[in-house]
TrEMBL record, chain B:
InterPro entries found in the cross-reference section: Tim23-like (IPR045238)
Subcellular localization(s) per the UniProt record: Membrane
Keywords: Membrane, Transmembrane, Transmembrane helix
Biological process annotations from GO: protein import into mitochondrial matrix
Recorded GO CC terms: TIM23 mitochondrial import inner membrane translocase complex
Topology in the lipid bilayer: Multi-pass membrane protein
GO molecular function ontology, one term from the record: protein transmembrane transporter activity
Protein name per the record: Mitochondrial import inner membrane translocase subunit Tim23
């Protein structure tokens, strides 16, 4: 049951933080492995060792950044759900903007505004893609309208004479 | 005299039968009110699977690690800046740096351990086709070995032993099967 696969709101924050951390560690691990492999001196053993060392050093940091982003985003999302008393894409977009702003807070107000814009646009794109996919996916369940059937059309036209 | 005077709660004495609900004429001993009754979809298991629990375990480890590391960093930062005699904005920045650095370190360490534990647990349960305490203990041991694998053989084995001990203790404490075995 898809609508029950997400936790209710306070626990959703922990779930999203964990999910974001996992994505960061796995994605960052792959990325840093390739980077470490390429930056190591030649010889397959040194390259593999370099790859391993880079993953050990950098992947947790990437994971931590993703986790912070995910946790802050989810916190804002749950707060908006509680305040507005509904769940819709606007919550996600506003949360994305707020998260971008908060995470740039150390760099001053113009940086916060710029990051907020980027975050909001990014989330708007993601939500738009989700709405598009769900719209296309629901076409298969559309019931056939009786007015589209040929003999009904003929009947309707005939009766207008 | 109203219509319901000569009717018992289960409708076994029919006064005005036409006004009674057809749902009231059954033997109540058919109801089993001792066990909780849940509706499960087709093929669903009674317990939440490892993969569902994984993200909340990982998230809890990260957030718990951030809290512990942040508290330790805060304490260290306040002590160190007091010893060094910093004041005002410099002190605030330094304390903040200590807190966030230590918090991030502990959070990502605990998070990586949680990811390894959950990942190996899910892989083991998929490979074995069943989910039980053996998976928990084995993935604890593997996580301990893997986490310390780059620090030399002795440390690696010590890490594996620590992982094994922790998960065995958890299983011994919470698992129903092991408790019933020793009763």
């Amino acid at each position: 049951m898809e609508e029950y696969s997400r936790e209710p709101c306070p626990w959703r924050i922990v779930d999203d933080c964990g999910g974001a951390f996992t994505m960061g560690v796995v994605g960052g691990g792959v990325f840093q492995a390739i980077k470490g492999f390429r930056n190591a001196p030649s010889g397959i053993q040194r390259r593999l060792l370099g790859s391993l060392v880079t993953v050990k050093d950098r992947a947790p940091i990437v994971g931590g950044n993703f986790a912070v982003w995910g946790g802050v985003f989810s916190t804002f999302d749950c707060t908006l759900v509680y305040l507005r008393k509904k769940e819709d894409p606007w919550n996600s977009i506003m949360s994305g903007a707020a998260t971008g702003a908060v995470l740039a807070a150390r760099n001053g107000i113009p940086a916060m505004a710029g990051n907020a814009l980027v975050g909001g646009v990014l989330l708007a794109l993601i939500e738009g893609a989700q709405i598009l996919i769900s719209k296309i996916g629901s076409e298969q369940f559309k019931p056939a309208s009786p007015m589209d059937l040929d003999y009904v059309k003929g009947f309707a036209e005939g009766s207008q004479q | 005299m109203n219509d319901y005077d000569n009717v018992s709660a289960y409708g076994t004495t029919r006064g005005r039968a036409s006004t009674l609900s057809p749902y009231l004429n059954f033997d109540p001993s058919y109801l089993d009110t001792q066990q909780p009754e849940f509706i499960f979809p087709e093929g669903a298991s009674r317990q939440r699977g490892r993969f569902e629990l994984a993200f909340s375990q990982i998230g809890a480890s990260v957030m718990g690690g951030a809290t512990i590391g942040g508290a330790t960093g805060l304490y260290n930062g306040i002590r160190q800046t007091a010893l060094a005699g910093h004041t005002g904005k410099l002190r605030m920045t330094q304390v903040l740096n200590y807190t966030m650095k230590q918090g991030a370190n502990v959070a990502s360490s605990l998070g990586v351990i949680a990811v390894m534990y959950s990942g190996t647990g899910v892989l083991l349960s998929l490979a074995r086709g069943s989910d039980d305490e053996v998976n928990t203990v084995a993935s604890g041991a593997i996580t301990g070995l893997l986490y310390k694998s780059s620090a030399g053989l002795k440390t690696c084995l010590k890490g594996g032993a620590v992982g094994l001990a922790l998960t065995s203790a958890y299983c011994a404490y919470t698992s129903d099967r092991i408790r019933n075995f020793f009763k």
